[in-house]
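TEACHING EXERCISE
Course module: macromolecular assemblies
Task: Read the component lines below, then compare them to the predicted structure of the full complex.
Student: A.B.
Group: 4
Components provided:
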Amino acid sequence: MIETDVLVVGAGPAGLATAIKLKRESPETRVVVLDKGRSPGSHVLSGAIVDPSGFDGFLTPEEVAQMPCEAKVVKESFRSLFTSGCSFKIPWMPPMMSSMGYPVVSLTKVVAWLTQIAVKSGAEVYTGYAVAELIEENGRIVGARTGAKGLDKDGNRKSNYLAPEEIRAKAVVLAEGGCGILTDKLIAEKGLQGVRPPTYALAIKELVEVPAGTQTAGEVMHTFGWPSDFYTYGGGFIYHVSETQVMVGYAYALDYSRAEIDPFTLFRRFKAAKCVARHIKGGKTVAYGAKVIPEGGFYAVPTPYTPGCVIVGDGAGLLDSLRIKGVHIAFQSGVAAAGAVLDELRGGKGLETYPERLKAIPGWKEMERVRNVRASFSWGMPFGVMAAGLAWATFGKFPWFRVPGCDEGDAAALKPLVSAKLAREQANQVESSPVQPDRLTDVFMSGTIHEEDQPCHLKIKDPAACARCEETYGSPCTRFCPAEVYRRDEGRLQVDFSNCLHCKTCKIKCPLGNIEWTFPQGGDGPRYTRM
Amino acid sequence: MRIVVCIKQVPDTTNVRINPKTNTLMREGVESIVNPFDEYALEEALRLKDEAGAHVTVVSMGPPQAMAVLREALARGADDAFLVSSRAFGGADTLATSYTLAMAIKKACDGKTPDLVLFGKQAIDGDTAQVGPGVSEFLGVPLVTYVKQISLKDGNGNFVVTTVMDDGEHVIEGNFPAVMTVLKEASTPRFAPLSGAMRAAKAEISVLDEKAISADPIRIGLKGSPTKVVTIFPPPVKGGGEKVDARGDAAAGAKAIAKFLAEKGLVK
Amino acid sequence: MADAPVFIDPAKCKGCAKCVKGCGFGALKMVDAPGANKAGKLAEVDPAACKACSACIKACPFKAISEVKQEIYGTAGIENYRNIWVFAEQSHGKVAEVAFELLAKALELKAQRGDGAQVAAVLLGHGLTPEIEQSLIAAGADVVYKVDDPALEDYEANVYVDAVSQLVEKHKPEIILAGATAVGRAFFARVAVKVRTGLTADCTMLKVEETKNKDTGAMQMLLHQTRPAFGGNIMATIMTPNHRPQMATVRPKVFKKAPHDPSRKGQVLLEALKLIAPQTKLLKTVRDPDAIDIAAHDILISGGRGLKSADNFKLLFRLAELLGGEVSCSRACVDAGWAPVSRQVGQTGKTVAPKLYLCFGISGAIQHLEGIRGADTIIAVNSDPNAPIFGVADLGIVGDLFEILPALVKELEK
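Instructor-supplied answer key:
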């Protein structure tokens, strides 16, 4: 049995910030960080323009200067799209949306770099190990168990079977990212839900290589509107990370009601829009990925503490739901968690103090200020924009009450399919090209790979329910999955789990809650290197 | 019983591409991995350790970042590891590499010849499959290639191995010491347990340079390499071939294929 | 940078980084050097990664990079090495086809040299009949060096190494070629080390040309050896300027056989060598008829989802029989239960590099194409004219495979 002082589950921005801060405050504390990705950063994906205030408190300015970052934002714009050819540039950049001077980064690379810092600081980071289960004793989380490896597709042990290993810790920090599996389970079991259920967006992203000399490094653009509809909070981004590389992505809120929607197709349409296409002209997609963003914000944040365990980062829903920025808040939550953990190890009130410490971070005030924006958007775009303006102008004082919205959860928001709408939607496709790869080609470029001979990690709880879903909703999983994992083949639902990007959309959006997301073998999944 | 396994860190070649305009290797976004064949060689060694208590040493020749593959091997159960690294080894072809590794193996085993030296059949970047045989010559030890299974006999002095040849599988008997190259048909490599990874993270790995292995300076690196890479270029672009529309006329399609095959000399 | 093969003159370097872009091995990088030039950067070479291929020298517009003359530690008496040898691999009296292919290539090289070099075949065995050496002469050998010894009855790597090395020491061939078979690739590599020379494996192109030796400046007839590397993602041309013999192995079916000329005359020289005893003993050979190794076959007939049923999939087997190939498939067929995973080609199946990949009803998703990247010739039959497979096919047939497949079988049966 393995023993450590602190176990951090997930080596993303939040988990690593916790580990780095802990080791720097208390070098003799043993900190073990486990991540299910194959190598540091391989399951990490984001835009990303990072608010540099996040680094305060755990990295020195010299270290921040060394962060892998090819450009800082030098030119920004904000556009409202009406149709593919028609858009309107907001003439004046809303100050709360401005990110001038912020670093434009590949979060994958930043996390790989942070991992090195964590290891140099004395933390132990092990990748390729999925933490599959938490261990609870007498109402307290006392450790965790890794997932088994070497099971065949029927669940039998293969010749290289590796049994789950137990690791005991005085404090467990859950840093699993958006829609973390253990985190969600813990929240449900311990009744830690926030005021309303979490709501997510599916973000789909590509790295496009463009000819040199055609684009300006540091130019960024955010869009909203088309191809999302009036009621769905969707928007895109184009970030020029260098002269020859552009990050282009689209985030679509998963509380959408129209069952015919295919977010991947929306992403393609977004890329084909006139004002977007010119940024990737002559280019070629070289990398792809997808992940969910916890957009619920302030009211959706769960109680991030239960005896023995605290929750940090996206897993705790910590995100500025107006700017859609969470990396800096993830860092701040990691620092706060480190403080609570150290207090615990030194015999104080300990982890119990974490929720208060979290409320004291700058990011918390940010979230509180924009707490009504997301729900307002569910009433329609103008309401969302109004709420955003009010939040800014009145520092969150108006509206003082909680605007209702996003209260049922994403799955419940889906309405039955209208087949005529599906036919229309499917007929409206974008032609393939080097910057418009088809879904399978994109999946290939995520590097995702799973051992084929292992139990399917996406468990259909009740196969009969899938037949009912097909009748009512037309199997939306075959459309909302950005990796083409789910397919209807001769009346059966085929699950090609090997394509899975670990984005968690299926767990969130299956209208019958029929998909259970379990852990595949550690090390499997996407292999992002520069997302 | 003393076993040495030689492993190599290689780029994941499924992702390496050459830029056709500049003839340069596009390395961005390409990960480094343990050469897949070497994982099988290591697994055979670990099985012999399980079966007969063999001492397993891993050796890797490469730049400092190759430490990562040695730690992975230690995590899986190898007993000790050596990194053979120095700028003087740079530019080595298979002859110079075989010499360098042979000297390093002798050093790692305190001047003695190990009972068994295992290699993966080939490295997926060089694709030559020459270093295993080359080292066997420098060590002066018999060579057995394309092994998929090793069994010990007679108090571990002898072996019976199954090799995969073009005409089927050969079951071969011999005595240690020997050098063997191992195929992917061999036993599935084991996973490193977390406890193993933790031990490996703390392990001391010695770095051997040209002085440590008493290498003759004219036989290592570029100086010791008879073969020289003169140019690299992208492989011929596939496709853009003829397209025949045989909708409605299957016979025409069939004839086009038959003709093509005959022209290429592919029909028996 | 005294130990690097190239020298970058800091006085001439302008920091333009063109050399960094031109380096195929990532051996160059720019370092900060304020004041050295307008760019404030100098190029620096990493001797560990540099392969002395001269790409940077060519790329530099300011002639700031030059080669450092290396001491040559080559084979002594290099001028005494003559003639082109081919290792004639045989097993139980049957010469491997690749040996004939290489003899044809050797004849070409002989003509390219035009200096009277002879072609010789090396034949090892025990109790071999005269037909064998005659077939080698008919295929192009001027001389056959034959070694007949009980130790050579069965293939044993260590005895083969001993025999061929002794012949090389005695007769000093300038070039030796062998087939890159399981036998050739193994023992030949050890011979190269034993005689201290260079070997290039799996060559796909060979030619002899007057080339300038970069170390001595002299012109030499050198063998240009071209082969794939990095899993087939790049091609490299390699030479062995200062060591002899120049050795190369070549995969079967890369070169074509020449027609046999039974009227050709040649010499058979019986070499009596004192050989070491075999170091291992062959107990038995096992041929498993059920074992399927699609990667070992040069001709693959492959099927995809377009075949629609297990029965249709079976049609592929007749075609495979006629062409002397093996049946493979895409993932869809394995998922559907029509074929075992051992036949699967693709990113999650096997990677194959056959001479011919003839596929039916395969759309060509990139995950599949990854598995056939090394295929020499691809012929595709698909009803969808926009199927991605046509982008890589050397011959594409758009049509109904259910009609074309039987029609093709009929054509080939003729």
